[in-house]
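URGENT: need a sanity check before tomorrow's submission.

F., can you look over the Conjugal transfer protein record below? I want to be sure the sequence and structure line up before it goes out.
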Amino acid sequence: MPEKENLPEKKEESFFRSIAQKIKRVQRPEKAKKKVPRDRSKIVAVTLWSCLSVLLLFSLLSAVLSVNTRSVVNDIRIDSTKPSKENDQKISIPAAENFLTGFINEYVNVKNDHESIEKRQQNLENYMIKQTESDYEESERFQLDGIKGDRVLNDYSLYNVKEGDKYSLFQYKVTYTNLFPVEKEVEKTVKDGKKKKKVKEKVTENEKAEKQMLLNIPVISKGDSFAVSAVPYFTQVYDLRGEITVKDTDDTRDEYTGERKDSIEKFLNTFFEKYVSEKKEDMVYMMKEPEALAGSLVFGEITDMKIFETKNGFEVFCVVQFKEKENEIPVVENFSLKLTENSGQYYVQNFKHQ
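Structure tokens as predicted:
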């Protein structure tokens, strides 16, 4: 009987146990882990501003480099257009003339024989600039092929000097004589037995022709050294006279006609009388910078005079005629004088030959 009582209890226990086991078998779903996204807005902003800063920096550097490059290029252009210090230095005319004396004699004088021609060529080359590159062979520039006579230099003088970018052109007026053979037919009287007859025969005679030309010589210099930069050439002599009009700056001023005009004219006549007759040291009391002719000429007259009043005194322009003492040949000269006055006495502050 007791075993039957325990059956219901065991069934009840097994029922709850099976339920518990089933409950255990049921797996709980794992909770999904929620990932919180990071705030990347700051990183993006920093990156963007960094890129912009770098771009701005590169732009500024490019602009600065461009300006500097342009400045350097401009400086190079300016320097290239400026003459070098060597070329900028003015050439010494007296020194260049002394240098060219020998060259002119060698160039103009030509003697028609092989030895003289070769010697002339060698001597001329000593005056020439040495070039690394040339349009022609240097040995050919003083060749004298096919000549038929001599050339003799008579006289020469410096006529003009023209400054160029690369050289100075010295122009000399040269007078020379060309000597050349001329074949002529002449008539001669010869004996024909007891009689005489006239016959014609050809003879060679030397003739000469005098010429005056302008010899143009391009010259370069480096310090006190000179060289001829190219083969010289001849041109016609041109006239140096020209019609040059100078505007008189004093035309707008009114001439002085006041009460002191007569005393000024009287003073100037006395002044020029002493100027031609006295010595330099005797003129100290009349002029600031003494000057005198010491009797070389005699005073004739003042042929023209214009007086202008200034703040410090008077300015005078005058034409004075002097004369040679021995034969009275007139010598006319223009002067300008600045006068000051002190107690009725005039004094020459400035004295110029016009």
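My own read: The longest strand covers residues 195-222. Strands lie at 150-163, 168-192, 195-222, 225-228, 233-235, 297-309, 314-324, 330-342, 345-353. If you see anything odd, call me.
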